[in-house]
Amino acid sequence: MIVSDKRRPLVILVVVAFCIVQTSFAQNSVITGKVVSSDGLPLHMVEIYCRGYQTYTDEKGKYTLELPAVKNSWVYFYLLGYRKDSLRVDLQSNKAYNFRTVLRPLSEELGEVEIVEEKSRITNTTVIEVKALDMLAGPVTGVEGLIRLLPGVTSRNEMSSQYNVRGGNFDENLVYVNGIEVYRPFLVRNGQQEGLSFINPDMVGNIEFSAGGFDARYGDRMSSVLDITYRKPEKFGLRSEASFMGGSLTIDAIGLKNRFTALSSIRYRTNELLLGSLDTDADFRPRFTDAQVYLTYSLTDKLEISYLGNYSRNIYKVIPSVRTTNFGTIQQSLRLTVFFDGMENYDFTTRFSALAADLRPSKKTTLRWAVSAFQTTEQEYFDIAGAYRLAELDNNLGSDQFGDIRFIRGVGGFQNYARNLLDAIVINAQHTGTFVTSRGTWGWGLRWQTEDIIDRYKEWETIDSAGYNLPHFRRHIFRTDTLGNVFVDTVEPTGLFLFESFDSRASVVSQRWMGYGEYSARHKIWGGDLYFTAGLRLHYWTLNQQMLFIPRTTLKFKPTGPKNIIYRLSLGAYHQPAFYREMRDLRGNVNTSLRAQESYHLVTGIDQVVTIWDRPFRIITEYYFKYLRNLVTYELENVRLRYSALNDADGFATGLDFRINGQFVKGIESWFSASLMTVRERLRDQPELGYLPRPTDQLFNTSIYFQDYLPKDPSWRVGLTLSFGTGIPFNPPQFPRTTQTFRIPPYRRIDVAFYKVLKEEGKPARYKALNTLKAAWIGAEVFNLLAIRNTISYLWIKDINAANPDISTGRQFGVPNYLTNRLINLKAVVRI
């Protein structure tokens, strides 16, 4: 029978009414509730099963199960990595029941840090236990400090929270807080200027990370996604931390019969301890401050309003005086001495506000509306003049002048000047929703975003080497005499030539429309469980009028049997429409017609739990291949990215990631990870060069996160992090790209922290006076334990000595810009 369009609404109304009537006559009961962890955090994808009926908890740990009224019914709760739980209930007709269930991890021993929850074996992200932040050693102790220790993730700068994932740069990473995308300043060029990360570790309640192959509900970047959820206070509390590098204060508050919660935090950080170990003697004045607040209010049991606000001010001032760097080899030892005059002044101010409403109109439906605004005002002012001296040292071990200057190889001067200003506003409004059925979960979302960016880019650099202003452009004039002989006259330049000079203004206003649809389910097949997720994203940008269709899917299969193993396959497109940084080229020109960069992911993996030393260990191995199109090439110096603003390359990235985590020391979690990777690009205008390494091509990387304690006194603990990564490629400035690419030396670093736990959460303290505290510990951190001077970039100096030309070679010397040396930091943490 064909139903006409005019009658279709009537037919639908009749069918809905019939279903309602049928339901009213059914002798059913309804069980609702919430499932949380032992820390009070909601658990997602918990299976609830009773008499052949099943359902799953949503992202807030809530569930609804409708089933026939039968006495003596048992309800079972199951989630991988947690102890199964059950409860007995006598179900009565037309009656609703509500329960709060707490699931506990399979092992809950002293101080255990569950680095990766078993939940991530089902979902498509790695779940990191927040407790892992407590004993993390190193200058970067926030969430990013943990992320950079995972497989596939690399970082070569301990003063920066940026990280690269599987060959991408930091601009290719997504970061969400409470479901809203957050941004970082645009103009940062050095790690020491970066300041505080947006993510406040004292406010974090849940951490999820994916290094590739993530779901369609996440946005449009090529590499990774970091999804942070801030916690909701359950009672009044206070957290305080102080160290030589700053401090923080966080207050938990509740009120209005527990319907209102407030989480407020202020942070202060200074990098003077780190900067004092650099080669440059200077008056450093870094001041980084941050204030955040997260408020929630439950209007009803079904409707909650929340607000997230952030204000950040990162000021970095420096007045350099002199720099001394020794470098070279045993055969040729060199020393660069630079005398400075001038000052650098960087000021980055960001503001962020987000208002959200979460509605649960039915037991199976969750709806969310959110609006947010991000505003950044950035200032880069510097005017630095310098005079340098390049000297060769006496390297004869038997000489009385060993280590002294033998002769001056080159002298020169330079001046760097900038007056850069940027003001950007990003506003977006979005709606997301989920609908849970007995067969699976549907998800959808729609987002509108507008961007308004004003940029003033004025910067120049001049280099003078022994009276020769670089670049030194000579003019060659060809002339012919009456006999036909050809002569060449060389004319020396007059006036000042700048090594680099940029002066531009830009204003970009645009809008974006984004949306997605997603479906996930679990099926019994082939004697096991098949977890399936598929979705489609849409992205339209008014600036270049490009519409993108982005499909993504993931399959996970867990066979039955004695082996606890899960197989994973992810396929999908991960396109990245340009943001302002990619559109601005090296000279400040803006390309508004730039097309989206495209990345197609293939990720396969095996996730297995094995027993070693009578304890469970999780071993994950993943292989990935990414086909890259319409790439925008860039130069990398320190943490500064300078794009070509052209879709001028294609390429690929491929690699193998490995990780094992478990209780190497009984009761506490540690892990080891290793990665092999290569990422290459082929320039469209120079295909004869073949595939060249991208600036983030790091062939091998390994990291260790290890914890231990004294067996006779577990209150004495140690945390250690180790990082090793092979060198990344680089070329001298204004040097054409060829296959003869140089590489920075390997990055090697060990940080260790020693702690004395004065009061452990949930346990009585040795001293009764400390029992009024929730937790407390003090400790000492040793940064860069082996005092290895890692290189982040190079300063290029030319060997020209006008006074003694016989010893000049005209070569360019790359003088290493070293990172921090060995340092000691004291730290104290108190929680009430």
CATH superfamily of the largest domain: TonB-dependent receptor, beta-barrel domain
Instruction: Please provide the count of β strands.
Output: 44
Low-pLDDT sequence parts: 1-26, 107-117, 472-478, 490-496
Given this structure, which CATH class of the largest domain is correct?
Mainly Beta
Structural class: mainly beta
**CATH topology description of the largest domain:** Maltoporin, Chain A
Number of distinct helices: 4
Distance between the termini: 69 Å
Tell me the CATH architecture of the largest domain.
Beta Barrel
> How confident overall, as mean pLDDT?
86
The shape is globular
Task: Please indicate the percent range of residues in DSSP E strands (runs of 2 or more).
Answer: over 45%
- Count of domain modules: 2
Main sheet record = 22 strands, antiparallel, barrel
Radius of gyration: 30 Å
What's the helical proportion of residues? under 10%
Pfam families: Plug
Domain TonB-dependent receptor plug: 125-221
Organism: Schleiferia thermophila
GO cellular component, one term: cell outer membrane
